[in-house]
């Protein structure tokens, strides 16, 4: 199995930035403890503070798929659905 990386971008609806930030911070610890999690870092855009970026690395696509089905991610999605204006996820593999 080969390692995969993920860039996940969420843009908060105006006025929802801090609620979304807190919810995102709350899933970092549980996700880092998941089997196959190599990196799970949350960033905030310096010029666009409503934009948050997760940079992730997983041992395999299977580990990433298990993460997507985890209880804490399901709870996070349910809690934040009304706070997110845009969500984009890109799964990539390192080539150099």
From TrEMBL:
- What PROSITE patterns does the database record attribute to this sequence? ABM (PS51725)
Q: Which Pfam families match?
A: ABM
InterPro entries found in the cross-reference section: ABM_dom, AI-2_Isomerase_LsrG, Dimeric_a/b-barrel
Residue ranges annotated for the ABM domain, each copy included: 4-92
* Name listed for the protein in its UniProt record: ABM domain-containing protein
Q: Which organism is it from?
A: Paraburkholderia gardini
Lineage, top ranks:
Bacteria, Pseudomonadati, Pseudomonadota, Betaproteobacteria, Burkholderiales
């Amino acid at each position: 199995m080969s390692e995969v990386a993920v860039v996940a971008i969420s843009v908060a609806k105006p006025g929802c930035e801090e609620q979304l930030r807190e919810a995102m911070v709350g899933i970092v610890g549980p996700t880092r403890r998941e089997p196959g999690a190599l990196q799970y870092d949350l960033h905030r855009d310096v010029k666009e503070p409503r934009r948050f970026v997760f940079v992730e690395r997983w041992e395999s696509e299977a580990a990433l798929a298990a993460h997507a089905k985890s209880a804490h991610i399901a709870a996070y999605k349910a809690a934040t659905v009304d706070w997110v204006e845009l969500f984009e996820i890109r799964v990539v593999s390192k080539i150099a």
